[in-house]
Amino acid sequence: MNQQPQPSPIRVDRCVCTQRTFTSLRDEAISRQTDTDTVASQCGAGQHCGLCKPYLREMQRTGVTVFHHLLPMDEPTRHTGAA
Predict the structure, then answer these.
(1) pTM of the prediction?
(2) Torsions phi, psi of 67, nearest 5?
(3) What's the whole-number mean pLDDT along residues 30-52?
(4) Domain that includes residue 30, residue range
(5) Is residue 15 helix, strand or coil?
């Protein structure tokens, strides 16, 4: 019996903090003739919890705006007290 692969239940398509979709960020960057990093930083995407940062980088690199797999997260920034 030939089974069809099941679609991934994972769908990452937005910054959860700002609720801006990656598609809307890409489209705005195109219409403004700038890059997605500029648009993301101006609207706050990637500036809060940081969960979308690897997806924003991958979108900038490839143009893909919907991800069906989890990307490795960035290492959290460690704040050390100045001695």
Answers:
(1) 0.79
(2) -115, 135
(3) 94
(4) 22-62
(5) coil
